[in-house]
Design a protein that fits this description.
CATH class: Mainly Alpha
Bound molecules: 4-fluoro-L-phenylalanine
Subcellular location: Membrane
Structural class: mainly alpha
InterPro entries: Na/ntran_symport, SNS_sf, YocR/YhdH-like
Largest sheet: none
Main location: membrane
Keywords: Membrane, Symport, Transmembrane, Transmembrane helix, Transport
Strand content: under 5%
Radius of gyration: 21 Å
Transmembrane segments: 19-36, 48-68, 97-118, 156-175, 187-207, 227-251, 263-285, 305-329, 350-374, 394-417, 438-455
Order of helices and strands: HHHHHHHHHHHHHHHHHH
Oligomer: single chain
Distance between the termini: 51 Å
Length: 456
């Protein structure tokens, strides 16, 4: 398989097989969103009802949108921006639809700026795990360890820099080089390790409580904002409305069935998130920790579990290494929209990756600081919705809860109303009959309802 993505106007090299695409797409989808974000936002939003809404968002909006984005990517065959320009022209529609591509590229870039900081946390955890520091650690000490990391801008900056460097390295070489091999080995290993952690959770005596928390919906705990968070997370976790799936779709061969392949990717992604929840919440309850503790949830809970397990240092090291790799295969796809766009504009891949990575790294420093020195800097306090949100919180909110739902809405409008159904049918085959009414009516209406309740 060639790792050479060519410049303007030339159709890029393609994935070697359907399997390669699945692995790249799963590599993009499965990341911090599943293992770090899903458990903590589930904890913050009261559990079961939130999980149910999240699953509904995946099924009714996320999955059909993934099919739409991969299809658009394959038809356009370029960066998300180039693809939208191309497809809009092919359909005889206004050039303004290219805005979908621009917003997606901006969203993925903004996500990358903080994603790299969080991914960086895995590295000191690998070192602590390997040195046996988690052996028998109590929950309050684990909490203090995590607090110490956040309080140190120097450490955070160091690991943020290393992680961004790793991302640029792969991106500069072409995303498909090395990615295929790495992902096919690492994703299954991560899956097995999560199963081991779930098995451990079963012995904790609190598994039932955790399962009830995750799967017994209590709708009185559900707010309109929680629905928006669940929706935003459905896009975030599936790498939608941020160009990644469109960019990867551009490298997809004609013969590959888009609908079935998307179903596999969405199922794997959802499976990993639910397993992560089942691994983490028994530990939370067994140790009297707070489910709504926020972004530190897995970094505080998992060391406690590993610390009590036979062979814990080994498993803990392996786990954080795998989490690092899962984040890496996602971050590469976060940079891809921008790099492929710049590449089309004549900038070499290497320069585009280094330039894009450098700016994302710089902006990422504001996330580093918002975890410590600037933790009191909450610039949008005048709006009730943004009250108390640091810069990091704002980047997260802006991308997942505003840009992605909007991008998804316009994408659904485009494929549902502006594109000739014969064109989408040619890409989606038999699935088109089900997909089309969903993306034309159900997805946009569901999105409008969520917007409505959040605005009022
Ligand atoms: N899906 C990734 C995760 O769950 O960690 C995050 C992500 C990757 C979002 C790529 C968006 C994207 F384009």
């Amino acid at each position: 398989m060639s790792n050479n993505v060519q410049g303007a106007g030339v159709r890029p090299a393609q994935w070697s097989s359907r399997f390669a695409f699945i692995m790249a797409a799963v590599g993009s989808a499965v990341g911090l969103g599943n293992i770090w974000k899903f458990p903590y936002i589930t904890g913050e939003n009261g559990g079961g009802a939130f999980v149910l809404v999240y699953l509904a968002c995946i099924a009714v909006i996320g999955l059909p949108l993934m099919m739409a984005e991969v299809m658009l990517g394959r038809r356009g065959g370029q960066s998300p921006i180039g693809t939208m320009a191309q497809v809009a022209a092919d359909e005889g529609r206004s050039r303004s639809w290219v805005g979908i591509g621009f917003m997606a590229t901006l969203a993925s870039f903004l996500i990358l700026t903080f994603y790299s900081v969080i991914a960086g946390w895995t590295m000191p955890y690998i070192l602590s795990a390997a040195s046996g520091e988690f052996g028998g650690i109590a929950a309050k000490d684990s909490d203090a360890l995590f607090g110490g990391l956040l309080a140190s801008p120097g450490q955070l900056l160091l690991w943020h820099s290393v992680f961004m460097g790793l991302t640029v390295l792969v991106s500069a070489g072409g995303v498909r080089h090395g990615l295929e091999r790495a992902v096919t080995k690492l994703m299954p290993a991560l899956f097995v390790l999560l199963l081991i952690l779930v098995g451990y959770g079963m012995t904790s005596g609190h598994f039932g409580e955790a399962a009830a928390f995750l799967f017994r919906p209590d709708f009185s705990a559900l707010t309109a904002e929680a629905v928006l968070v669940a929706l935003g997370h459905a896009f975030f976790t599936l790498s939608l409305a941020s160009g990644a799936m469109m960019a990867y779709g551009a490298y997809l061969k004609k013969e590959v069935p888009i609908a079935r392949t998307s179903v596999v990717v969405a199922l794997m992604d959802t499976g990993v998130a639910l397993l992560a929840g089942l691994a983490i919440f028994p530990i939370v309850f067994a140790n009297g920790l707070e489910p709504g503790a926020g972004p530190g949830l897995i970094f505080v809970t998992l060391p406690v579990a590993f610390g009590q397990m036979p062979g814990g240092s080994f498993f803990a090291t392996l786990f954080f290494v795998l989490l690092l790799f899962a984040a890496w295969t996602s971050s590469i796809s976060l940079l891809e929209s921008l790099v492929s766009y710049l590449n089309e504009k004549g900038v070499s891949r290497v320069k585009a990756a280094i330039g894009g990575g450098l700016v994302a790294w710089l902006v990422g420093i504001t996330t580093v600081l918002s975890l410590n020195e600037w933790s009191g800097f909450t610039p949008l306090d005048m709006f009730a919705r943004f009250e108390g949100k640091t810069l990091f919180d704002l980047y997260d909110y802006l991308t997942a809860n505003i840009m992605m739902p909007l991008g998804a809405f316009f994408t659904a409008l485009f494929v549902g109303w502006k594109m000739k159904p014969a064109h989408s049918a040619a890409e989606l085959g038999g699935w088109h009959r089900v997909w089309f009414p969903v993306i034309r009516y159900l997805s946009p209406i569901a999105l409008l309802i969520v917007f409505y309740f959040n605005l009022w």
